Amino acid sequence: MTAHRQRAAATTSHRTPPVHTDPGDVPLETALLALADPVRQSLVRELAGAGDWERSCGSFDVPVTKATLSRHFAVLREAGLLEQRDAGSKRLNRLRRAEFDEHFPGLLDLVLRHHAEGLGAG
Amino acid sequence: MTAHRQRAAATTSHRTPPVHTDPGDVPLETALLALADPVRQSLVRELAGAGDWERSCGSFDVPVTKATLSRHFAVLREAGLLEQRDAGSKRLNRLRRAEFDEHFPGLLDLVLRHHAEGLGAG
Question: For the domain with range B3-120, which CATH number is right: 3.10.450.50, 1.20.1050.40, 3.40.30.10, 1.10.10.10?
């Protein structure tokens, strides 16, 4: 397992591979906190409007630094909302919509229906 | 306005009357944050299992101080989830289920279905 992880890291980039959490292992508190943040709501809405693996991490238009954006992606992974994989120098993203819906029915839909309050952008 | 508030406070008790927020004026972020906390989840579940105005503030069995409990009630009021009124020395509570559901459909149900994770109680 460790050897496999090291090999994966070596073949992709200088970054450590993303760690994922299955939505079934996510406490309700974690799911709600992940979706409460306006920037993460914006990321989730953009992902919902794109196809799986279409969006790279650098393609999101949110008013935060790169480090903060990385932290937001980590929170979304820990909440079972986001799957990421490295492809060359890019890290690609997929919203785990079906898996998340199975464990938290209606929650993601609620966020996707609401406008991006607090970001100043419609 | 100030005179009115002072009079209202004088006729009920030593406390200032509770201030309420309509669920329609509550941002999604506020609603999600209010329901993310395990203690507030527990309060909401207990309220959902009781009739309107049946439960007084002192009747909840949660492992927090009185001051912390007051703060949790305030957060629930600000999220449009709780209505309170003073009756003699007691403050009575009502879950604003229908009004909240209208603006955040499915969210309260999701919380009520989940167990009280993080509280150590089933």
Answer: 1.10.10.10
